[in-house]
Design brief:
Shape: globular
Distance between the termini: 42 Å
Bound molecules: iron/sulfur cluster
Structural class: alpha/beta
Strand content: 15-25%
CATH topology of the domain at 128-258: Rossmann fold
Largest sheet: 5 strands, parallel
CATH architecture of the domain at 128-258: 3-Layer(aba) Sandwich
Order of helices and strands: HEHEEHEEHEHEEHEHEH
Strand order of the largest sheet: 7-6-8-9-10
Radius of gyration: 19 Å
Helix content: 25-40%
CATH class of the domain at 128-258: Alpha Beta
Length: about 260
């Protein structure tokens, strides 16, 4: 015991005390939009560069209107590096999860922002009744993709992130699960397995989509496997963008589903 105590005093504790801090300065993160003026379709560089068609640019009264879907974004940074006006920048926040799909659509258009805030508020009210999972949660992970998201989910359990301190446990059987955490784009081949897993879970239960593939299909969107995300076949309560999402973003999404944090 003395040896253990002396080790702790010498080395400190690995677990980060305050969850979901911003990313380090040298990390890239996901894109965010600023209020800097956009050159509109006269430029269109970001939309042209985006490999997942996550960006739409239009002109309105001589002003460039940008809309960027974080649910389709793979965080490649091309739009950020190419934008000449600083309209698209790096976002170092790890608190990216949303309860409403539409709230993942970033825009520099005020009226859309207002609608989005209104929807968030309505969703929060609705979700208060769902917050029966507030104390502990059992999660069954189903991977339908490349496994990068699954590696980050695995990292959530290490001593730095320590997911279990929030009362969240990854379980092997859907029979014990409250949450179906889905990664990957859910192609045709995985649909039946996923539906069977969901059916085996007891009520009440929620579905969380982790990673841009599970939200929109990501780079697989509209491909031959019809892999366009999990909400095409199951109701999703929380969306966690990223390719793959940072472990803090995954933890933020799970805590959001539990009602322990706000989006
Ligand atoms: S960072 Fe996202 S939105 Fe920007 S170009 Fe890459 S995939 Fe598209
Ligand atoms: S956001 Fe930037 S890159 Fe995209 S159209 Fe506007 S000015 Fe051009």
């Amino acid at each position: 015991m003395l040896k253990i105590l002396s080790y702790i005093f010498r080395n400190g504790i690995a677990t980060v005390a305050n969850p979901c801090p911003p990313l380090e300065e040298d990390a890239d993160g996901m894109p965010a939009l600023t209020e800097n003026s956009c050159s509109g379709t006269g430029c269109n560089e970001c939309a042209t560069a985006c490999p997942t068609d996550a960006i739409e640019v239009s002109n309105e009264d001589g002003v460039g209107r940008v809309s960027l879907d974080l649910g389709a974004c793979i965080g490649c940074q091309l739009c950020i590096d190419i934008c000449p006006t600083g309209t698209i920048v790096r976002n170092r926040s790890t608190r990216l999860a949303k309860k409403q799909r539409d709230d993942l659509i970033l825009t520099n258009h005020e009226s859309v922002l207002a609608n989005s805030l209104k929807r968030s508020y309505e969703a929060d009210v609705k979700n208060k009744i769902r917050n029966i999972f507030g104390r502990s949660l059992h999660v069954r992970v189903v991977s339908t993709g490349c496994s990068a998201c699954d590696l980050e989910i695995g990292a959530c359990g290490n001593p730095v992130f320590d997911l279990e301190r929030f009362g969240v446990h990854i379980v092997a059987s859907p029979r014990f699960a409250d949450v179906l955490l889905v990664t990957g784009p859910v192609g045709k081949g995985m649909r039946d397995s996923l539906l069977r897993c969901y059916a085996a879970m007891p009520e009440p239960k929620i579905v969380v989509a982790a990673g841009s593939c599970s939200i929109t299909g990501g780079v697989h969107k509209n491909g031959y496997a019809e892999a366009n995300g999990v909400d095409k076949i199951l109701p999703v309560s929380v969306y966690i963008p990223g390719c793959p999402p940072h472990p803090w973003s995954i933890i933020h999404g799970i805590l959001l589903g539990m009602g322990k944090v706000q989006s």
